[in-house]
Amino acid sequence: MTLRRRWASLSWMWLLLTVGQSQRADDDKPNIVLIMVDDLGIGDLGCYGNDTIRTPNIDSLARDGVQMTQHIAADSMCTPSRSAFLTGRYPIRTGMVSNGNYRVLMTLAAPVGLPRNETTFAHLAKEQGYSTAIFGKWHQGLNCNYRNDHCHHPSHYGFDDFYGMPYTLFDTCGPNLSRDAEIAISGRLWISVQLVALAALTLALGKLSGTLCVPWALVLFLVLLMLLLGHFWLNSHQSSLYWDCLLMRGHEITEQPMKAERAGSILVKEAISFLERHREGPFLLFYSFLHVHTPLPTTEDFIGTSRHGLYGDNVEEMDFYVGKLLAAIDDLGLRNHTLVYFTSDHGGHLEARLGHAQHGGYNGIFKGGKGMSGWEGGIHVPGLFRWPGKLPAGNVIDEPTSLMDILPTVAALTGGIVPQDRVIDGRNLLPLLQGETQHSEHEFLFHYCSSFLHAARWHPKDSNATWKVHYVTPVFQPPGAQACYETHYCQCIGDNVTYHDPPLLFDLSQDPSESTPLTKDTEPLYDLVIQTVADAVKEHRKTVAPVQPQLVPERNRQFVSLMSCCGVFPFCFCDKEGEEAASKQPFD
Ligand SMILES: *[C@@H]1O[C@H](CO)[C@@H](O)[C@H](O)[C@H]1NC(C)=O
Ligand SMILES: *[C@@H]1O[C@H](CO)[C@@H](O)[C@H](O)[C@H]1NC(C)=O
Q1: Known catalytic residue: 139?
Q2: pLDDT higher than threshold 70 for residue 467
Q3: Which of 196, 213, 424, 454 has the fewest CB atoms within 10 Å, measured from its CB?
């Protein structure tokens, strides 16, 4: 127990002694485990109606807890959605947007990230004496001015411990033959450069000292060969494999490039070790899965075991790891003192799913997917909350809720206070979760594509309808497709979108698949709804203060001076995981 925590618990006891039972009992400060999966579709889970994929551990959360059926991400892409999750604020407020089609952080070596003056749920929990950790994907930036300055490292956002990818999985990270070949060739080239350099030096010294009799031409030839090989080596080293696919523990790079297929088990072990070390609580663990993003690195035990190809295997492996986390919570006797939350950062990636290899998730009855701004498939995600004895088991809530609600909910659970000097878009979910209220506080939710508002939903306080108004929708390509194959992701502006005037209107409570737009002729409330939502958008815009957008192309690109390196740049190969995993030392 750290001094700070000891102090915190002492002062807590003092409070209990002096103020008596009217204070929240220690028992009421639950541990919090937040699980987020990357690119998981809502239709990929048994508890959301899938009957061929096996997700028993996640389904148990629904059975033993509360299931949200209208849980909405603040954006349909990783970086902005996660920033909103962390801060409880629309990305447009924090600047985790661009003014064009750049929608995520494009590389780890870009000098951008979540602004340091933002407050995350981890900050709030930490202030209340919680031990905090994030394991897995970050994707909120890393460096600002020089390599390894780590100005956007999770440790600056309230997390005591971090182990994971500061960036995100993407196709280059493998595992595949080209990744392995790339590493092998690069390694050999580097050894050849060293050998040729050594030979040239030996010959030159020998010649100069008169002990060797070789022509200068040979020395010159070796030097040229060294430069040539060095040039190839540097070129093979340009790949983002080296600069973006890396694992970090705390501030140390442990694998560069990382072995993606073994990261899952390493990170789960690390999380379980965190739970064990902090079993006395209270703790907040954000387990941010690298699963089920492409290229779907999966261990051999799971390959070929599902009915849905590599994607299904990866989902089932992810569920297995969820089971490991839940079992650790049970084994430590923390089940009734821990709120477990499960979600996905946005919908499944249709362009990956419908591509020939079927590598993306399934969004069930919802239209569209990852990246498709306002369409439900991109933002309508699973939302499960389990806290035995405190939340009714098996309850289903159809009200609109948001991933941004986690920050105020964490504040309520931990006794913290949400920041008062800025707009917080999330709402405390406890009254809804505990059945004290039946109605969501979110009358309106706004659906952005980067900094552009594409759609909005209205759930009137006195009705069960949920209206959805689309002002802008992505243009699918090629024509007739239901996704954006040519660009791999849909885009936000210009020729890549359709501007609707009048806007498209749907009643999600009647037409959740957004199949038939309502018109003045088919919907008597048409004018009223369009006008009400337009007014709400206008009011909302008034509350958005201009901030510097982070993801703009000028800065959201690779800077050589910011490339992370575990050695002496550009010699950046590390694999420290082997030894460290074996010795199982805690790292703090
Ligand atoms: C279950 O999930 C798989 C994997 O995404 C998908 O292909 C399948 O269509 C889903 N089945 C149902 C019934 O939802
Ligand atoms: C953070 O700093 C930026 C730049 O000075 C400013 O625009 C923004 O309003 C600040 N945000 C908060 C939450 O204080």
Answers
A1: yes
A2: yes
A3: 213
